[in-house]
Fold this protein.
Amino acid sequence: MCTRVHRHSIFCILPPHILRAIATNSAQQPEREAALRTLSLDSTFRSLRLAGGIPTGRPHIARLGAEEGSKQRTIYSANGHQDLPGEIMRKEGSTPSSDVAANEAYDGLGSTYDFYWENFARHSIDDEGMPLNATIHYGSKYNNAFWNGEQMVFGDGDGAIFERFTKCLDVIGHELTHGVTQDEAGLIYQFQPGALNESVSDVFGSLIKQFQLKQTADKADWLIGAGLFTSRIQGKALRSMAAPGTAYDDPTLGKDPQPAHMRNLVRTFEDNGGVHINSGIPNHAFYLAATKLGGYAWEKAGRIWYETLKDARLRPNAGFSRFAKLTVSVAGRLYGATSSEAKAVGDAWKEVGVRT
Ligand SMILES: [Zn+2]
C-alpha cells in the first residue's frame, strides 16, 4: 500500500555535514565546487519536500508491476543533466551495458529485490511489484545518491573524494529500504524517528550486502559505503555499525560524528535533527543483537527488525525506546518471551543505553 503522504520525499545517502566539511576544508577548488553544487541541489530538494512538491515521475517511467517473485528493472542515464528519468540504458533481461555504472545499478536493484523476496516474500518496495527504476550519471560530479519516492538516482561522485555512487551494494540497499520504510511505517524523517528511519536503511543495506556475500554476523564488516571514498581519504566507509564514530577521520571530511550510546546522543537541528548522526545508536544495537545471536544476521535479527517495521504498533513518530520495546515484543512473539533471541535483543538495547 503506497502512502501518498510520504511519496514526495528525498532521502540522500550523504548527510550535509560531510559536504559542508569538504566545502570548508578542501584545498582544491573543484572539490569545494562539487560539494557546494551537491549541497545546493540537496537543499533545493529539502525545500521542495517541505512544500510537498518534488517534480518526479514523468508519465513514461515504467509503472506496471511485475509478477510475484520476478522483478522489473529499468536503468536510465541523465547524461550529466538533472532531468528524470532520462535515457534508457538497460531494461529487465537485456544484455549488460558497456557502462559499468548501469550494470552496477541493475545488479544492485536485483540483489535488493532478491533479498526481500527470498527472505521475507516481499514483492518489491511496496510488496505489490513496484518497478525498480534508477537514473545514473545524474548532474555534474554530483556527490550523492537518493531515493525520491519513485526511483533511485545516482551521482558519479567528484572522482577526487568520492567514487561513483553505484559502487556499493549497501548504499543501493539503504536507499531502496527508505521506500520500504515509507510504505510500512512512515517514520517521520526528523529527530529520533528520522534516526530510526536512517538506521533501518543501514541495517537492511548491510544485510543485503551480507546476504549477497553469504557472510555470517562475525564475518561481516558492518560498514556502510565501504569503497565509496577514494584512496586519498582516511576512512573505511561512511558509517560503522560495529563501532559508530570510527568510520573516518580525515583532514577534509572531519571525524565521523556518530554516537554509539544514548549518553552521547547529539542534539542538533542540522541534518533534520541529526538523523544520519544519532542513527549510530540503533545501528549499534542491531549489530550487538545480531552478533549475540550469531549465524546469518538476516535470519533472526533481520527478521525481528523487519517484523517490527511492519508492526501496526510502530507509529510514524516512534522514538528509540518505543522501537526497542517493539523489537523485544516481536522477538518474543517469534521465538518466545523467555527465548535467547528476545533476551539478546533486550540486552543489545540496554548496552546502548536505550533500555534500562
Ligand atoms: Zn538514508
Summary: The pocket of zinc ion is lined by residues 11, 13, 174, 178, 198, 201 (CB under 6 Å).
